[in-house]
Amino acid sequence: MNNQTPLLTYCLRLGDNALIQSYRLSEWCSNGPILEEDLALTNFALDMTGRADLLLAYAATLEGKGQTSDSLAYRRPEKEYLNCLIHELPDEDFAFTMVRLMLTSAYDMLLYSALEKSPNENLAAIAAKAIKETRYHLAHAAGWVERLGDGTAESNSRTMQALTMLWPFTGEMFETDSAEQQLAADGIIPNITALKEPWMEKAAQVLKSATLEIPALKTWQTGGRTGRHTENLGHILCEMQYLQRAYPDATW
Predict the structure, then answer these.
(1) Mean pLDDT across the chain
(2) 201-225 mean pLDDT
(3) In the chain, where does DSSP find H-type helix?
(4) Is 203 in contact with 197 (CB distance < 8 Å)?
(5) Domains detected in the chain
(6) Global confidence as pTM
(7) DSSP state at residue 30
């Protein structure tokens, strides 16, 4: 995966975000607090798996080395995954899942709404599908954050604890590098830093309704976009890649 083109790297970052997020959401299958949430979160996981498949398949085409979305998903070593750290953090509880989903979906709505206007037809088509899914993800998660935050003392405390744990990882979503800056200058992708203000406004709106305060921070947790991850990604890959590693090229 060396000597990647800027667009290939960008697609891997988006694809890995969706892939790892799908894994975390899938962990709620048969574990949801109520049946409706069990079904909802499992379907959200499927949405993200489909998004990852599209992005990684496009990345494989860009690389031109005979890879597929499956081989990129299941056969890369840990350091070649480029997802933001926020997606790999283990779920502490239901509030943690909803706060993370709200924060990342608010970001995805802005990102994919901009990407839908990209002159790159592949990115625009993927974005058009992603927006429809993300719109519902955001509404669903925001509704739960508001109910939990403005609920009982216990639910408020747990939701605030989740927000405090997750907030230091949100800054990485707005990081950029010279390659992405060139893609933005060429009009292929949006200026990521320009998305931060509207994202903050949406997050603040939801958190205000939830009677939650935005944590005050001066430092951020980063590294995932360049392949430096928490130990949690290793645990995910041990399970997620087991079948492909044990039976490479198996067919059904």
Answers:
(1) 95
(2) 93
(3) 6-26, 35-63, 69-74, 94-115, 121-149, 153-166, 178-185, 196-209, 231-240, 242-246
(4) no
(5) 6-213+222-246 (1.20.1260.10)
(6) 0.94
(7) T
